[in-house]
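User: Last request for today: this protein with NAP, please.
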Amino acid sequence: MKNLKIGFIGGGNMGGAMIEALWRAQSNEAGTVRNSAEDERKFDGGSEAHGAENLAQTDKNASSHECEKKTKFEIIACARSKNEALRQRFGVKIAASKTDLAREADAVVLATKPASYEAILRLIAPELAGKILLLLAPGFDINRARQIVGEGVYIARAMPNIAASIGASTTALCFDAGFSESRKETVREIIAKIGKIYEIDEAGFAAFTGISGSLPAYACAFIEAAADAGVRGGLPRQLCYDAVCAAIEGTARLIQSGKHPAALKDEVCSPAGTTI
Ligand SMILES: NC(=O)c1ccc[n+]([C@@H]2O[C@H](COP(=O)([O-])OP(=O)(O)OC[C@H]3O[C@@H](n4cnc5c(N)ncnc54)[C@H](OP(=O)(O)O)[C@@H]3O)[C@@H](O)[C@H]2O)c1
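Assistant: Here's the final one, the structure of the complex with NAP:
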């Protein structure tokens, strides 16, 4: 069993989602996961300060070989107004400053908005030698980060989506040159906790942001509009959300099983039928 300290600078929508997924995965492995994902989404500042204990446990059922390969993550955060909620909810250790966090962590995840990337990277650069730096922002590439932090830092870039919190993100990932295979594996192990990984060239990141990072917003706009139509027709709202989501899931599964979207659409659109 390896130990890895992951430091999150920022713990908002995305940083919080990734922390939740890591916490959930480790709780799962320790056999202490709870059922209601939605309840757990709420940073309600309640009395659930048990995340740290969960992180400290090991998977008693795993074979010793699996155990050796697994990484035990310790999560550290520096996330301004979110610090207390993250500490209470997930047992995250809070660093006194971004510099302290970078000094202590083995891997630093930059989970703030891109506008603050440059200033934060300048601040923590002296602490990053030999460490992994994971960038999440669109429009801030590895080369730009490299110019600020210099050589000797292992920079990777990921583009997740908000379903990370339940381990259902579709995440693009790429590595700068110089990553050893074992360091790549470490990053893959982190990203696998938040869902499916697509290793692509960095040049594809802008397009991937459109088809995955941003996509939940478009999907939600569609789902809400479709459900509104159901409500207008007299159906209960909750039933509408559930039915629309199930219909989308079924359609997605058909496409994933090999159907062409255009052909599937035509199959639903009988001439002079209701759909067309
Ligand atoms: N949201 C998504 O669905 C999504 C999807 C893909 C990629 N991303 C990327 O993920 C990154 C984070 O986005 P987000 O949606 O999570 O943003 P967010 O909800 O606004 O969270 C940003 C977090 O960073 C903290 N923060 C901001 N400036 C800071 C500073 N100087 N020092 C320390 N902490 C600081 C914020 O603290 P306060 O709350 O106190 O301001 C907050 O915890 C962005 O680069 C975004 O493009 C997001």
